Write a sequence for this structure.
């Protein structure tokens, strides 16, 4: 088989197949391979008119079809299947060739794989790809890690197939070394969890407290999507809420079981944040909310628990409450993004990745699930202040939250008095209040730690580390 393909894709499930088609539609000759040869042949037969494909039925044929340096995209299940495919193809590659993992791999696995292949002379790129099936086909947001040399070879191709922001910029950039790309994709998904949970809480409040029907809430979300909440998730929320189940004639949202599943990236975001010591409370509550929804037996056993009587609003009162919910949703979303960017900054420092937060925000403006109009402003904020400690340090965002906070607090107070769970709204407000507090009660916590464990403490009035002799005369000693 002659080497004519500029890139190859192995693993032709929906994401891999659509990514291969995207490359072909953009003028590249694409080698395609799948462990089941029938999938390879089916892709070429069904979509061969979209571009030039080279069908390969064995790993050897696949590698032989690729021009040097060979660029090979792996789109298989994360974990051991990815390791198996990488090892199978690495044995057939030469120095300077590039393996790209486009799945949702854990970034520590990517770091391990990159080190192993680098020692064998092969480049390894962990590329986070966001946008789902549609994005893979029509333009996703792509977050590649790996060596700068590998991006020189691969980058122009990714830029061509990636989504384009409104200013025409491709939604991809070199994120940083080894696992940086998959780390950023992980945090992207964590923010996505928070964003979705906040939207769900807004829906619940509008339905339970304001008394709006799903169709009315759909209209409300469509209206919000014309303003500062303009985003992909708000857009599709309006679509989901307006949909009627054909079998029953009921609102679609009413015939779906209220159990939200998860694939793991949200959990990873929270777990790694704990390791890094980064507070991502809004993201964490979104992950826990999905967990609570899945514990059907626990929830069934709790039906006897008493709650307050819900007073449904009407007319102008309901409309005013809906405006307050919009304020709370916007403020909470800003905090969720703030927490995510803080975790990326902390990971970048921990692993010496030198990630440009402004560029991350820029490539999330199109293609990805959390694409939103205010990412333009986040990009500008980090371009103006690259070392900004928090997105809330940006004056414009701080002013917007200050303007929203009365309504934000009122919504959460209403939720509490009406018995509507809003864990993500509450957690993001608590985070905001923690950042603006002149002094936190952590002083007492540290005092308790010193009492029971001699963990010491620092004083506000002088340097040094101290311990109080609690069981003795209460005097203080310097450690």
């Amino acid at each position: 088989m002659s080497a004519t393909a500029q890139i190859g894709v192995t693993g032709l499930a929906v994401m891999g197949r659509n990514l291969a088609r995207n490359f072909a539609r953009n003028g590249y000759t694409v080698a395609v391979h799948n462990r089941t040869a029938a999938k390879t042949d089916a892709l070429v037969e069904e979509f061969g008119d979209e571009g030039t494909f080279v069908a390969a039925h064995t790993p050897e044929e696949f590698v032989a079809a690729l021009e040097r340096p060979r660029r090979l995209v792996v789109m298989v299940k994360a974990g051991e299947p990815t390791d198996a495919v990488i090892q199978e193809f690495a044995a057939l590659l030469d120095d300077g060739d590039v393996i790209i993992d486009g799945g949702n791999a854990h970034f520590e696995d990517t770091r391990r794989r990159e080190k192993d292949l680098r020692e064998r002379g092969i480049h390894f790129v962990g590329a986070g790809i966001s946008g789902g099936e549609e994005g893979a086909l029509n333009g996703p947001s792509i977050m590649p890690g790996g060596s700068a040399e590998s991006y020189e070879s691969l980058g122009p191709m990714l830029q061509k197939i990636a989504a384009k922001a409104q200013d025409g910029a491709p939604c991809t950039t070199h994120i940083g070394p080894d696992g940086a790309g998959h780390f950023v994709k992980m945090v992207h998904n964590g923010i996505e969890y928070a964003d979705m949970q906040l939207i769900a809480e807004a829906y619940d409040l509008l339905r339970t407290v304001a008394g709006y029907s799903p169709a009315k809430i759909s209209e409300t979300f469509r209206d919000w999507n014309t303003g500062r909440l303009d985003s992909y998730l708000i857009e599709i929320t309006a679509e989901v809420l307006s949909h009627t189940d054909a079998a029953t004639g009921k609102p679609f949202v009413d015939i779906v079981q209220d159990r939200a599943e998860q694939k793991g990236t949200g959990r990873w975001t929270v777990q790694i944040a704990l390791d890094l010591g980064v507070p991502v409370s809004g993201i964490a509550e979104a992950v826990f909310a999905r967990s609570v929804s899945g514990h059907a037996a626990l929830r069934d056993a709790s039906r006897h628990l008493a709650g307050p009587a819900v007073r449904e609003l009407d007319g102008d009162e309901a409309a005013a409450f809906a405006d307050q919910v919009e304020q709370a949703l916007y403020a909470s979303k800003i905090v969720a993004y703030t927490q995510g960017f803080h975790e990326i900054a902390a990971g970048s420092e921990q692993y010496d990745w030198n990630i440009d937060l402004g560029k991350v925000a820029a490539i999330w403006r199109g293609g990805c699930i959390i694409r939103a109009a205010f990412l333009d402003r986040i990009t500008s904020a980090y371009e103006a202040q690259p070392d900004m400690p928090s997105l809330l340090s940006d004056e414009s965002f701080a002013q917007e939250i200050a303007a929203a906070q009365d309504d934000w607090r009122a919504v959460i107070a209403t939720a509490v008095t009406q018995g509507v769970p809003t864990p993500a709204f509450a957690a993001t407000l608590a985070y905001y209040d923690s950042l603006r507090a002149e002094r936190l009660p952590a002083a007492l916590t540290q005092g308790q730690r010193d009492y029971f464990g001699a963990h010491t403490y620092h004083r506000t009035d002088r340097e040094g580390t101290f311990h109080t002799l609690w069981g003795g005369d209460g005097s203080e000693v310097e450690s």
Observations:
- The first strand starts at residue 7 and ends at 10.
- The mean pLDDT is 95.
